[in-house]
Design brief:
This protein is of the alpha+beta class. The chain has two helices and eight strands; from the N terminus they run βαββββαβββ. Strands 2-3-4-1-5-8-7-6 form an eight-stranded mixed β-sheet, with helices on one face. A hairpin with a 2-residue loop joins strand 3 and strand 4.
Length: 119
């Protein structure tokens, strides 16, 4: 079900300033830029920037690629995880969600056709 690491998202206080800073250190700009999310394609992986407070967690969130987020969500919840943030449509054909695993860890899942998950 989990296809591989896909995205790490960092909450930032100033989205515009963080976008400029990461563009500078990466040497290129984002492939996606909105008020609620900025995404960079870094060697086939995504570096995301979130306005602070989105999601409601301190620190970064790592998202695992899935082909079908609804199926993955159901399977993970049935396996004992508890919802943190329900499935959200975040633009285009991209969907994200987070759960708390039974051991207290935050686990993110992402369905993003812009990045092909390899088995």
């Amino acid at each position: 079900m989990l296809k591989g690491l896909r995205t790490v998202a960092y909450p930032v206080k100033d989205l515009k300033k963080a976008t400029m800073w990461y563009s500078g250190i990466l040497g290129f700009g984002p492939y996606y830029e909105e008020d609620y999310y900025v995404g960079f394609n870094v060697g086939g992986y995504e570096l995301g920037l979130l306005p602070e407070g989105e999601p409601a967690v301190a620190g970064s969130v790592v998202y695992w690629a899935v082909d079908d987020i609804h199926d993955a969500w159901d399977r993970i919840i049935l396996a004992g995880a508890s919802p943190n943030e329900e499935i959200m449509h975040v633009g285009g054909e991209v969907y994200v969600a987070t759960v708390n695993d039974p051991f207290g860890n935050l686990l993110g899942i992402i369905q993003n056709p812009n990045f092909k998950a390899e088995p």
